Known about the structure:
- Chain A is of the alpha/beta class.
- Chain A contains ten helices and 17 strands.
Amino acid sequence: MHIDELDTPALWADLDVVERNISRMGEYCKEHNLALRPHIKTHKIPELAWRQIGSGAVGIACAKVTEAAVMAAAGLDDILLAYPLWGEHKWRNLLALTERAKVSVATDSARHAHATAVALGEDRKKISYLVEIDAGGRRTGLALDDSLSGHVARIAESGVPVRGIMLYPGHVRQVEDMDISELNAQIGQAKSAFEKAGVTVEIISGGSTPTAFYSHRIGGLTEIRPGTYIFNDLNYHSLGACTLADCALRVRCRVVSTSVADTAILDGGSKTFSDAAGLAGPGFGMIEQYPDALCEKMNEEHGYVRTGGCEQRPATGELVDVIPNHVCTTVNMHRVLYLARGGEVEEILPIAAAGKIH
Amino acid sequence: MHIDELDTPALWADLDVVERNISRMGEYCKEHNLALRPHIKTHKIPELAWRQIGSGAVGIACAKVTEAAVMAAAGLDDILLAYPLWGEHKWRNLLALTERAKVSVATDSARHAHATAVALGEDRKKISYLVEIDAGGRRTGLALDDSLSGHVARIAESGVPVRGIMLYPGHVRQVEDMDISELNAQIGQAKSAFEKAGVTVEIISGGSTPTAFYSHRIGGLTEIRPGTYIFNDLNYHSLGACTLADCALRVRCRVVSTSVADTAILDGGSKTFSDAAGLAGPGFGMIEQYPDALCEKMNEEHGYVRTGGCEQRPATGELVDVIPNHVCTTVNMHRVLYLARGGEVEEILPIAAAGKIH
């Protein structure tokens, strides 16, 4: 089947590029003796997680316990829940997950660590904790100040084994601006605080796609958790984290109207692409066949493309391929990914963990 | 079951407010002899479409043929596809839909009208067209100029019966600024062009939630297609189209971290709320219990709430209710809606047409 035969909008990826992206990250981590733990939020597909394991990954990271359940059901058996789960439903699901996988959980407060431990009761030793520190993103994570060792000690008192440190340098977007000496100092400070609390640091888990290939310069990292690298996207391209040729994912859309002057309307809007803003400027992506067209804005089902700047313009009924701003949120809107080589569909993969909100 | 017992994030609506919103629109349309055809993209739930029918609605509007199929399977039998569907998959689904419902389709070009007619072949008379005109939104729709009657005549030559005019004044956001005389002039001009083309105008379909209660002042409208009114949201509140008390929908989230100063992190991000921007300013919504908190930004699973401006602040583990910016895109991220009165869940409705992208 050729991709021209797919109903639109259709999510597809170039299999050559996907394979290259997977193997490049695997090789980098082997070369630098880093454990690779891909975040599966990008693809949400067990089959692709297995290919990452095949490239040397030691396990996976998930955000949601229901995403983790999908992965565990497919045999993925080493899972970090990189998120401070809270609630009876979630703790029950977490316990069920330990029947199938080795499970670690991020925590960033004694309150969370103890609530989870109380909920798990005698089973609390079936999980372990990574303690998150705030590397500057002001999202989650303990502050790197004098209070840190006290917090870590109280977390350890929960009775859940603490295995190490988690950080997410997701605020480091422009890799050339990354202050590696500051990150190194932060990690050094965190390690001292953990030692002072009497907690052995076995794992220091960091990484994100834009910073991934700099990880060997960050002292002490034992593991990285990049997600986006498997597909890459326009936002990471705009940050210099990948080339356009590294962008594997496309949303194939149909032009359904050109009745308004200098405009082509696509049959994909925010329900197809998500509303993810473009880091490099306005718009929802780039049309491969019409790179001078401006993917200006969206409603739920309509993508507004302004074609005034194009020499050639698409006709009503024509198929186009859009490279999206943010692949993770785009993939989440779809239920099937087509993998193609030279335009021929080789595989049809259900996006089994898409749309999981719990 | 109390809403406190739901796994988070949970989508719920106040049933009293939903019922009031439904009946108010139904009564307005009866009073002014307007056909009400609610756009079901807001709720995507057949059961709620039936309650709109119960308030006097003549049928429904859908954007996607797969959404329409869900509705038709539940017995909704008068459906406007307010979208220029294009493609063999879609035309086959359209034909299947005519077995269960009276179906009309929006078109805005002879090219689209004829392609659809050719695809349907002898069955083309099983559907009818509304011809969309561009009322100023620069999205879809034919221009109101001298070419209009020619376009309409060529659309009519497709052999699909043309029943009237469709317009979407969705660009009219600030209702007090709405230039009704201009809309009236546009409709008059369109009617003349249709007459010149020899096409009888039986239906003039307009409306959107912000303009809905002004529809009786727009000359010639026979039908309106508001969607959001059933729930309302923060964006329409900021436009003056509803009060906060009219906003029925909430996303119940849990605070999972307060480790970063002046910050509460919710277990709902762009996968829960969609990324819909706030028309009134930054942020992704308003927390009912902490209206002074700033729902600043989101990642996929994290909602960043800055609490520096709050006298009381939420604790880790606490439940909060967020009124979202845009209900339509928020509902689309969920699969179940809880309807509650006084905090007690009375109904659990599957959002059967959520996530339909075709």
